[in-house]
Design brief:
There is one protein chain. By secondary structure, this protein is α/β, with parallel strands linked by helices. The chain contains ten helices and twelve strands. The C terminus is likely disordered. Keywords: DNA-binding, Transcription, Transcription regulation.
């Protein structure tokens, strides 16, 4: 096997995090996949690169030697990619490099950005993992990104990063087959889904961890079905094979329904994170305004989410009002308009 830059990135991630598991989350991989890749790399170089112990993974002398040569290569490749993208977008910072988790708000956000900046080039990079998006921001491959941080699993943002909070505690709903016994309830207790298989994306990292914690808190131990393809996941839900957590703005279909979970056991903070060195504060504020407007439009189109926001669902949680949303660090309001009206 010939070593590639992605292999060197993997070695650097393991060394930086001190753990194969943490490195896998950072890289958007599963731990078994990264472990297999590490074994192949070690076979290619002819020796062990890391020693696993109770304190994590530590580089061997050979590992230190390889890392000392790998880091400059990775840094140069990152710089090359950044320079190439800047050149492709034209001189003068006309290219806006956005990122985001796979959210339904992204299309509306991009439409507003294009309308506001009709002559600028805009790229979008979608990741399942918010941690992976943060790494792209830190490495200057993105200018701003929409991230989700499950409750209890915050991202460790560098102090220089700018954050605009869109929703401090956006709930995760559940998608299930229309014929599922729990589908008759306007709000579903998590315990009623304890015997179901739950679809999870292993690359989602903290989303999976938050789901496991919610199950543990409820005294449940459901089967987890690892599926990375969203289309396949949707088909499995429609067929009644499994259920899965989803955005509150997710749409029901003829074969599936979307329901809130009683007590909101799964929530996440939704934010726009940006590099101030890449964009002026005024542009970051404008990007946030575009995002908030798109989110409001999307939420207005969801009867289930509107009911949750207004506390109208039977046995549902109390209303989430605009007053619940704190101001941003720069004084730009982080609340959206009252969409429950």
């Amino acid at each position: 096997m010939e070593l590639e830059v992605r292999h060197l990135r993997a070695l650097c991630a393991i060394a930086d995090t001190g753990s194969v598991r943490k490195a896998a989350l950072q890289l958007g991989m599963t731990q078994p996949s990264l472990t297999t890749q590490l074994r192949r790399i070690e076979a290619a170089v002819g020796g062990t690169l890391f020693i696993r112990g109770q304190t994590g993974s530590r580089p061997t002398p050979l590992g230190h030697s390889v890392l000392s040569r790998a880091r400059p290569i990775v840094a140069e490749m990152t710089a090359l990619v950044i320079a190439a993208r800047d050149a492709a977008c034209g001189v003068g910072g006309l290219c806006l490099r956005l990122g985001g988790v796979g959210s339904r708000v992204v299309p509306g956000w991009l439409r507003r950005v294009h309308e506001r900046r009709p002559t600028a080039e805009t790229t979008i990079h979608i990741e399942v993992s918010s941690a992976a998006l943060l790494q792209l921001l830190v490495s200057k491959q993105l200018d701003a990104a929409l991230v989700h941080e499950p409750a209890g699993f915050p991202l460790r943002l560098p102090p220089e990063m700018e954050r605009r909070v869109l929703a401090p505690r956006e709930p995760r709903f559940v998608a299930l087959a229309a014929g599922h016994p729990a589908a008759r309830h306007p709000v579903v207790p998590l315990a009623e889904l304890g015997d179901d298989s739950w679809i999870v994306d292993p690359a989602a990292g903290h989303e999976c961890a938050a789901l496991r914690r919610a199950f543990s808190t409820a005294g449940l131990d459901p089967r987890l079905l690892h599926v990375r393809d969203s289309a396949t996941a949707a088909e499995l839900v429609a067929a009644g094979v499994a259920v899965r957590s989803c955005e509150p703005t997710a749409e029901s279909t003829a074969a599936t329904v979307v329901r809130p979970l009683l007590g909101d056991p799964l929530t996440a903070q939704v934010s726009l994170v940006a590099r101030p060195g890449a964009l002026p504060i005024t542009e970051i504020d404008a990007l946030y305004a575009d995002l908030a407007d798109a989110y409001t439009e999307l939420a207005n189109g969801s009867a289930v989410y509107r009911a949750w926001l207004g506390g109208a669902a039977d046995d549902g949680p109390g209303p989430l009002t605009p007053a619940s949303y704190p101001p941003s660090p720069t004084g730009v309001p982080c609340e959206r308009q009252d969409i429950s009206a």
